[in-house]
Fold this protein.
Amino acid sequence: MTEIWEGLRAAFWLIVSLDADLVEITLRSLHVSLTALAVACLIALPVGTWLAVRRFKYRRAAIATLNAFMGLPPVVVGLIVYLLLSRGGPFGVLGLLFTPTAMIIAQVIIITPLIMSITHQAMRELWAEYHDLLISLNTTPGQRVRTLLWDGRRALLTAALAGFGRAIGEVGAIIIVGGNIDHATRVLTTAIALETSKGDFALALGLGFVLIALSLVVNYATHALSQTERSGRW
């Protein structure tokens, strides 16, 4: 029990004193996750909205596949990205393996289906309200998508925050394609795993507290943007 309290005290001091390693790892985690989030949103938001608006032959199959990809195991994504970026892979010449870019690619693959699925669900409900109006105005598919994206921006922000929450907590794929290299690809989750295996519980706890704090911020922001308490749906 004494060791636990000593670890907690040391972790608190690392956070208060802004330990250099702690700050570096946290900033790298934010850089990787936020970049992956931006790329994923550029793909997922318009495509998810388009799926809500358009009707085509294999639409049901596409939506079912999208929902299935939400549960794609991160280690499988990491393995696939590793094989693609390895020296013998089709993109090995780019030299991206064990770099932050490889980690961003893996996170984009993981969170894009999640953001796209949430977007599709939200935009489908909004489309039901706007359908008659937009059809009567003889709008093009592109105009309909842009209208729904703008009017449903609060729901889309919630989808983006959900994607960020999953990205910042990812470890399986990240450690495979990033390698957990010190001062290069080490992020919060991989650092926690490493420091725990080394027995450095102070730094592991400090990193864990930062990760928990980021998760709490994401959840509070999600509720605030969704106005769940104000609308009586808390």
